[in-house]
Amino acid sequence: MNQEYIKADNWSIIEEGFDQETVKSSESLFSLGNGAMGQRANFEERYSGPTFQGSYIAGVYYPDKTRVGWWKNGYPEYFAKVLNAPNWIGIDVLVNKEPLDLFTCTSVDDFRRELNMKEGWYKRSFKATLPNTIRIQVEITRFLSLELDEIGAIDYAISPLDQDAEITFIPYLDSGITNEDSNWDDKFWNTTSVDSKGDRAYIQAHTMKTDFKTCTFMGAELHLDGKKVNIDPEVSQKETWIGHAYTQGVKQGERLTLIKFGGYTVSRNHKADTLVDAADMVLDKAFELGFEALFQSQKKAWAAIWHMSDITIEGDVKAQQGIRFNIFHLNQTYLGTDSRLNIGPKGFTGEKYGGSTYWDTEAYCIPFYMATKNQEVARNLLKYRYDHLEKAIENAQKLGFEKGAALYPMVTMNGEECHNEWEITFEEIHRNGAIAFAIFNYYRFTGDYSYIPEMGLEVLIGIARFWYQRANYSEAKEKYVILGVTGPNEYENNVNNNWYTNYLAKWCIDYTVEQLHKVKDGYPEDYQRIKGHTQLTTMETDKWEEVAKNMYFPYSEKYGVYLQQDGFLDKELIPVEQLDKLERPINQKWSWDRILRSPYIKQADVLQGFYFFEDHFTLEELEKHFDFYESFTVHESSLSPCVHSIQAAKLDRMDQAYRFYLRTSRLDLDDYNKEVEEGLHITSMAGTWMSIVEGFGGLRVIDDKLSFTPRIPKEWESYSFKINFRNRVIKVTVSEGETKFKLEGNEQMSIRYKGKRLELNPNEEISA
Amino acid sequence: MNQEYIKADNWSIIEEGFDQETVKSSESLFSLGNGAMGQRANFEERYSGPTFQGSYIAGVYYPDKTRVGWWKNGYPEYFAKVLNAPNWIGIDVLVNKEPLDLFTCTSVDDFRRELNMKEGWYKRSFKATLPNTIRIQVEITRFLSLELDEIGAIDYAISPLDQDAEITFIPYLDSGITNEDSNWDDKFWNTTSVDSKGDRAYIQAHTMKTDFKTCTFMGAELHLDGKKVNIDPEVSQKETWIGHAYTQGVKQGERLTLIKFGGYTVSRNHKADTLVDAADMVLDKAFELGFEALFQSQKKAWAAIWHMSDITIEGDVKAQQGIRFNIFHLNQTYLGTDSRLNIGPKGFTGEKYGGSTYWDTEAYCIPFYMATKNQEVARNLLKYRYDHLEKAIENAQKLGFEKGAALYPMVTMNGEECHNEWEITFEEIHRNGAIAFAIFNYYRFTGDYSYIPEMGLEVLIGIARFWYQRANYSEAKEKYVILGVTGPNEYENNVNNNWYTNYLAKWCIDYTVEQLHKVKDGYPEDYQRIKGHTQLTTMETDKWEEVAKNMYFPYSEKYGVYLQQDGFLDKELIPVEQLDKLERPINQKWSWDRILRSPYIKQADVLQGFYFFEDHFTLEELEKHFDFYESFTVHESSLSPCVHSIQAAKLDRMDQAYRFYLRTSRLDLDDYNKEVEEGLHITSMAGTWMSIVEGFGGLRVIDDKLSFTPRIPKEWESYSFKINFRNRVIKVTVSEGETKFKLEGNEQMSIRYKGKRLELNPNEEISA
């Protein structure tokens, strides 16, 4: 652990004391989001020290020109970048005309940040002595409203401590911002108007190329000791900046407060020529309610979220804080109300990994959203891929595939591929399988079959067609093989017959054919529409089945395990534990060729297959594969430990399971990878949730019933979580030797507990 | 063939008629070089149409920042760029104050270019009507002096055709030039002084970062109908430009000539503060001799080159022109007098493939230079690698190798790696083997063993250490394997057990051990020095030998061939001839993943091994491998057809051999790859020479004797070439059914002809 400065607390993330060195890390950790917009924990007032500014608008991106060494056919022209949006939070502060800047203050005392996860707000307070020797006390509260999701609210309060002072607040908007992650230092925003009206201001700007039109807006109010002060602001304005200066004499001990509402209206949600009107409407609402009422509604909205998604852990504050931090950020990032959006790997906390959607969504995030939201949310995530099917077919065509074969992109914003390393873009094709698996998983969990005839089957057909064409017959093996792929373990590139990929390919074909029959029988009208649309024939599906039936799977008789890929046993099979600590992480210490020819596994690969298709294998098989592959796994992806944690728990190795859990749950809080200043690992946070619910709780869905095989780490007294299963909510509380189930609502429900059937009555707690 | 505008001619490259579309191609084809500097065939006078300006100074480069998608450990920080140097050829021409610019002339007639390869000069002539209706006749002769290799000479002559005219010549220097191939549009040159003195001018400039200091200089003289005109030039000068204007009234039919000498003095060859003095010295010499005498010495120098290196072909003008074009450009690029220089793949004809030295030098170029120059030239090429040994050891260290293991760079200027694609930089390690092979080949051909104890053995030890460390023991195969490589066939990346690489690795170790013994016995002092320097022990060499003895070679019983790599037979083995023509070249039509999983071979790979180690295999084995691999080879590298041509000839398939020969010899003249405007393929030109001498002529060195098994394509009446073998020169003339040998000098010599011994007497032609 590299970072111990965050205080352990059940519900809040707290930093005490001002340290310039942690500013950028804290900007990530204390980020706010409301699904529609996000904001790193940048200071409102000027800060001349090192900082990483980030304001983000969901779905607004910039297609940056790709940067490659040598161009290869099939590379995408651009790489969608999560875009730093115009700044709406800025408030310059002058005290007797001296600017407040924590980097230049002669002293900063009692500095404290709190991200209150329970209620969804962020507060910062400190006492500072300015270069002009005036001491002030400052307290700022900020939140991004869940009720009015185009608005954020700031309460910025100052008291002069030792003398009277003249205080100037200059709330401002700024569209002259830059992007840290730009490839070519291009300008991303074009500002078209800067306007002021009374206490409000507006900057209209659009992104270059993508032409997302935005109005960044603000409105402000001044209060002295709680009483509104009416001053006309002094307006100053530049090409990409507008500020409103409010100056007020403040007596020692009095408290001058600026309430600032600000945010964005965007052409994704409004007509482009009504953005200022829309901004006024939302500002009207905000001012009508006032900061306090909006703050109360924020607390209420978060209470509702926590009511369903909270996980409690007794006896381990750090573990408790970790899991809540993960659940909080998942909910800040994606609320599932807009099927055009998805879950970016950094959410609203940084720019890295341009593009919003990876296979992370299907493999790691969907279970969390299925179990803690109503099923529409997961359905929207599936619909997102259905809406991108045409683009996935075009993408496959670019690579030479035909007849409606679909290859979903490795990274995308709008369905087009945004990644451009051949070994990933062209070869990490298992992503296609995760998308099919999510369809299966969604139906398994929700019981909502309608998605398949309505949308899913066409996605499955495109995917099955891809696998059929991507495999080829090997005369030497007398089997179908899949050559030249990269598996989930990205420390192997361009390998042949990655077991996980081959297994998934076969499964996709089998599952698609099964759904074709099911839809044909049960949804004949949909079937006819789909048949017409896809021109699918039995001759074609027969050929698919031939490939699926004769797929090759590399296997070692000696070790009794499926091999990660052809040739895996040619490697020097030295277990990770024998590696010198100084050599790790290998992705920082070793050259790429050395990593590639080593046996070391970045993240679950064969074991990812055992995770998806657990019921296809015996416990003994799992154990053998776990023992074999775990010994070579370096877990240098944030997505790795959770799968191993779930499997270790299943194998009743709770110490190991707990170690993996800790690594995933406090990855960012403890900054394991020394990179948290770049942003948080949002999608892996869903893996943490899985570690508890599926790993420790042993949650599965078997034959349309929830099934639990709970275990508890010896470090914990108890833990609890809730599952929304087909609109029935069940709370599970696990302690050593006892599991309690409590069903909400009115209907009975039967579940399995350690393999046995258990009947639950509404609102009655059962101890098992 | 895409380009038919070059006239067939035995000794010259000729273009007739002015076509704006061919300007850039011709700028490449008519390039001049003298080993120390080079110049694309850019016009001296202004040209406002599309052009690719290029003036190059041998050994002067710029370390451009690398451009990559995602950084990987071990990547080099920079990529050495062949640098466009300040322009010394420029001569602005005004006719009655109207600038001459062929792009804007109302007519251009009788336009003709000739590159006279026999005598080493380039002439351009035309009649043009300027926008001001004045018609002029122009004739320009240019050459880069072999005698004074810091100087180029231009004779620029104009006659007004229909009326008297005032003609102004403004010879100039310009250091405000740009580089087409720049990654980041950086400025490469910094100009420090611009000076004029009488008829001479100087610009001193140095390259950024590498700080090569240069003085670009010129001197001029004006002649009217052959009589010197004395005018003081009008000097004009800017920050990076200086011009001298000479204005003269010229009567209709009179001929006004500007003689311009210009070029570079460089801190690589002179003290940095004496560059202007050095320029004056070489200008003094040039003006003392005068254009005509220098021109005569040029013809003499080229006659000497051709005397030794010419290949004649009777009955096939295009083939004759092709081979001379290749020999001419090889000699323009590298003369072997400076061991700091090497043979860049584009020579002095373009910027692409930054860096000068590839394994092309060792694998393709050394045989040409060994046989057509004295042995010092090849020795200098070997010394170049010896001088870079420390850098190669550092390079290997960066990738995790230890104890003096050396990995030579894929591309280099000064010994440091300049390439940055992991699959090439880190994995195309067979280059190390070619460097060892060249040492073997040099000794085999020249009989000069001294290089090995003096320098070569240390190179071999570094290379053997690398192979020993790069191989690992496979428990599964019970053999040593080499994982994760790219062979010469770059259409495969990160494969296991590339046969060529494994074979070369084993051979390198065996050969090194053999040389160790030989040096120990024959050169004990060198042996002690080397042992001290390398800390080599018998324990270490024993371990090498263990690896060499137990190296794994993939083999197919079914086909009776060594496999290009593990898993090759899993591919869909469809021969190239069954591919749709529209799919080719696959590197332009297919995505990279599709190329990788196809069986198609970019250039000789297994067959490259059969070329190097021909005597390790039977003719039957060669035939089997040739038939198997040729059917999958697409020859999309300029280095491919020559090896296949040599082997087809050996297999007595002369039609096939001739087809391959044509493809290699006129690659640039006929612009097969539609890219000649970017520059010529210099290193593959040496492969063309090999196709004739080793392929058709069947030249080998066996047991210290030259051996010939000549064949002739049915399209030719006869062909001849000369070989300088251990300071004895032998001319071989082959026609159908007859081969004539003529030995120069005074000593007898015995050779083998079709396996039989043949005695040659000096200056006596023997017919066999």
**Main beta sheet of chain A, described?**
11 strands, antiparallel
State the total count of DSSP E strands of chain A: 34
Sum up the overall morphology of chain A in one term.
globular
- Helix tally of chain A equals 19
Q: Architecture of the domain at 6-309 in chain A in CATH?
A: Distorted Sandwich
CATH topology of the domain at 6-309 in chain A: Beta-galactosidase, Chain A, domain 5
Level-1 CATH class name of the domain at 6-309 in chain A: Mainly Beta
Q: Unreliable runs of chain A, pLDDT <50, ≥5 residues?
A: none
Overall pLDDT level of chain A: 93
CATH level-four homologous superfamily name of the domain at 6-309 in chain A: Glycoside hydrolase, family 65, N-terminal domain
Using only C-alpha atoms, the radius of gyration of chain A works out to: 27 Å
| Strand-residue proportion of chain A | 25-35%
What structural class do you assign from the helix and strand content of chain A?
A: alpha+beta
Kindly, what is the distance between the CA atoms of the first and last residues of chain A, rounded to a whole number of angstroms? 38 Å
Family (chains A, B): Belongs to the glycosyl hydrolase 65 family.
Domain Glycoside hydrolase family 65 C-terminal (chains A, B): 699-760
Domain Glycoside hydrolase family 65 N-terminal (chains A, B): 14-268
Protein name (chains A, B): Glycoside hydrolase family 65 protein
